[in-house]
Amino acid sequence: MLDLTTCDAVFLSFDEPNADSHYDRALEYLPHAKRVHGIKGFDAAHRHAGEICGSDHVITIDADNLLTDEEFFSGRFDVSPRDREAVFSFSARNVLNALEYGNGGVKIWPRETLVTLRSHENARRPEAAVDFCWTTPYFQVNRVLSEVHMTDTPFQAFRGGFREGVKFNLAGGTLAYKVYPDLPKGEALLSHIGDANLERLRIWCSVGADVPNGDWAILGARLGCVMTALDGFEHAHVADYGWVRDFWEKTVYADWQDDARRHEAIIDLGNRLNRELQLEIADLDAAASRFLKSTYHRRRAFGMTVTV
To answer: pLDDT, tens digit, for every residue of 109-124?
Structure first.
């Protein structure tokens, strides 16, 4: 049994507009939580988190996370001895689209994994360029510990949607059309990422018009998917904070800050995804988005992902 009250906790923030208020909530649940702020790069920030901690296991909370399950952090977590070297990723509910999975959720890391992490900007293997989960022993835990709030500004919303639109073209850190070069791209995508992740991709591309800046997230998801699946985008750029900011300022916001033009772009991107990948995504208004979120039942993830 892992006594969570003895684990160091680290709140990781970079430029999130809601970071301070979310850190205040984290301190209510975890009064001893440290904060790592402003370190550029996922890998660098997480390794620093490990370096400032002394416990064998470390809890990390991303800045866009608002903790919602206080009871969990005062309890114990049952870990089999054979799994003590794995990362445990807990589900978070995204208020944009009601999806509940590991994206942005609370994680429990072996400290040794944090301080030796080599992913994202410091990846030594191409599979780790976008996420650590494909090269590190990793459990997805279905318990929801937090809410993800990632639409406080247009840029935050776009960045979150764009990342998921890119990432859902990957499985095991590799692209669908590279694994199945002889299949039509739509068929290759489904064969590669499976039903559950296909459903999540479609929801990211369709749901959220009822949330302020939700259209920017939908634009990001659709654009990320089009660029990656159809236009040969170098997907590792999505882990480069500077590249994403530059792309936003020089291309995305410059072209689509006007509401009408942004709406037109969302429709055009959706039409292309449906035509060339057969995604069958929908253009939902605010009322339809609210209704879907009120009735949606999430898929649950089971088991352990281990890459060696």
So the answer is: 999 989 888 765 665 6
